[in-house]
Amino acid sequence: MRWKNSLAVLLGDALVGVPVTAAIKAMNLRELMEVTNDVIHGEIVDKTTFVDDHLMEGAVYTTLTVQGESLRSGEVTTFEVTFLGSHDPADAFLISEMPALQDVRIGSEAVLFTEAQADFGDRNVAHSWASVYRVERSFGEPVLMGKGEGSAFPTNTTLVSARDQVREAHLAIEAAKQPALK
Q: What residue ranges of the chain have pLDDT lower than 50?
């Protein structure tokens, strides 16, 4: 009996000592744009939630309706952007990777990196908090709130500068896709 208890303690200690790694990969602006289809800037005008079992049973998703423009194509329209999780207490489905509530409130202005998901009803998906950037207008010129080292926008930057950086990265990505001339 004593041997089994000692073995259980040793195994428990070994498990506690195993290092854990983060699930969200650090990506600069170009890297994030290479794995997403669009970058949308606009105002969040509506928010709804729904349950879908395609990833996991009982998973709750939030869909934001955003009136704005694509910073890649210049298209001005209404976009729907979906992420896993919900801030609604009635849904009881919070996850650590979802965007912060202050970044996705109705009436908020944001820049969102999205990926079209064919296997999820062609929804535009924002995969994590690292895909949604709040824009603040409280000190004059609109400012995109940075998210720190390892993100597309590590520091706060003006919206005009963010637009220019997105456009420059988009053009570089498109140029890299073109075959080299001999």
A: 3-22
